[in-house]
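For reproducibility, we list the full input for the iron/sulfur cluster complex.
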Amino acid sequence: MESKKEALIAYNDLKRKIINSGFCTLCGACEAACPVHAIRIEKDEVHHVHDCSKDLDLCPICYDVCPHSEALLLESVGFVADAPVRREGLGYYRKMLLAQAADSELRELSRGGAVVTSLLTYGIENNVFDSAIVSQAETQIPVKPKPLVGLVPDDILSAVGSKFFPASVARAFGSAVYEYGKANIAFVGVPCHVLALRKLEAWQHKIMGNLKIIIGLFCFGTLSLGRLLKYMLTAYRIKPSEIKRIDLNKEFVFQTERGATRIPLSEAKQNILVSCRTCTDFTSELADISVGGAYPLNDWSTVIIRTKSGEDFFYDAVEHGVINTEVIEHEPDVFAHAIEAAVQKRTSALKELSEMKEAYVPLPVRPLREIAVLSQIKVEDVMTRDVISVSPNITISQFLDFMAKHHHIGYPVMNERGDLVGVVTLEDATKVAKERRDKILIGDIRKRKLVVVYPEELALDAFKRMSTHEIGRILVVDRKNPKKLLGILTKTDLMHILRKRL
Ligand SMILES: Cc1cc2nc3c(=O)[nH]c(=O)nc-3n(C[C@H](O)[C@H](O)[C@H](O)COP(=O)(O)OP(=O)(O)OC[C@H]3O[C@@H](n4cnc5c(N)ncnc54)[C@H](O)[C@@H]3O)c2cc1C
Ligand code: SF4
Ligand code: SF4
Ligand code: SF4
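The corresponding predicted structure, in tokenized form, follows.
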């Protein structure tokens, strides 16, 4: 059994619950945060390089700031929660739009909108920040990321494009402060990297006074380098040194000198890290600015602006002509694809988590305090009363256009008499083939069997019902007349309540 002294040293929990359970994504936040430099990432592993219990009697830091621990989650949401809009899968935000670098050569290099590279280059050239944490390609294995403290535009340009393997970018952030003495740092990372930085901020760690802006990337998962390279060798006879780059669109494209090899996402996903299977954040919900692909468009990116500082910086770059923008409502397919991927990731992560719980895999547990709070609140006190609904008589194409404007992913269906006659989601609509979407009506595809809650029930009842049925929102109806819709409650609403009350 763990001694009392061992229990006060967070590294013991970090090792047992995160590292040994396969949840580590090598972000390096624990190394950057450790006050006595007892942690080091070497050869893609976390090492405890000296026994910190000899220096300290108590230290909670490394476990608390690890993005895969349950600590500091609600505090971290606080950094973006003043944004006016909040949607399932997208998080809190101010604006969602399409953007691309004005420089077409840069877009060619990035195989996307090159928005991240453009923003960072602009920021360095105009002294908005003094450095940026980016991930270059490694020399030996070009698809492997090598985090770098970028100081000049050439450093930023050398990191253009995505590498789908773990990058210790939070450690590089620590180096920017400790070794380079940088005071205004821009940071780029996937959602778990962003969460690690927000946790460090919530901890009020001394290095976080040097953070200027966080740019988050969309992320389906990171691949295990060893496993994927072995797989490519056995299944496709492609050696690691032959892979020049990997592009992601609807599928993975492995570029070698012999040409392109296309691999479906589902096949490559067999090689993602354990923690990615249980990760619910697709769009970097805690970043100042999030950037992802804009499928089916090739040289555009989807941008979600969340904070005021992110908005000011982004539009400064737009005004200086380095970024072009376009409204996302003109491209409902892009919006539908992004939100579908976000919701799909969340749903499959929650399913995986519950399977792991059943198999007794050690998981960081959410505090029981949340249950206590939700059992003190009635649904009617927290539901949204002003519900946006759709008519059963509109076509699926009209519904997709409507959805791109309102950014919700599910809507109650109300007939002309104002009766609730079903519910329809983005998923239901996109299951219908594109060429039939102008002919089929919402009334034909709506779900008629509804999961509902009554206004006098508890928020906890609503939460349990949403979890049992694997849905993100629940309709609130009159107990005496179930066709009378009174409101709607979403899981994001409940998160918002918890953040305010805990
Ligand atoms: C592991 C991973 C998975 C992704 N999955 C999806 C997805 O499923 N759907 C989607 O729409 N978009 C996904 N993205 C994001 C997408 O690939 C682009 O990074 C994003 O659209 C920004 O494009 P851009 O042209 O503006 O970026 P660019 O201007 O090309 O800049 C890319 C930036 O990404 C940084 N970077 C590259 N690799 C990594 C890494 N491993 N870790 C941290 N930073 C890195 C570089 O430092 C660079 O600054 C993923 C990205 C990564 C790294
Ligand atoms: S001293 Fe470092 S390794 Fe030890 S518990 Fe604290 S942060 Fe973790
Ligand atoms: S903080 Fe990052 S590097 Fe450290 S254990 Fe957690 S995921 Fe791994
Ligand atoms: S899926 Fe989640 S845990 Fe995995 S790399 Fe992406 S953000 Fe990190």
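The chain has 22 helices and 20 strands. The mean pLDDT is 89. Both points were considered when choosing residues for closer inspection.
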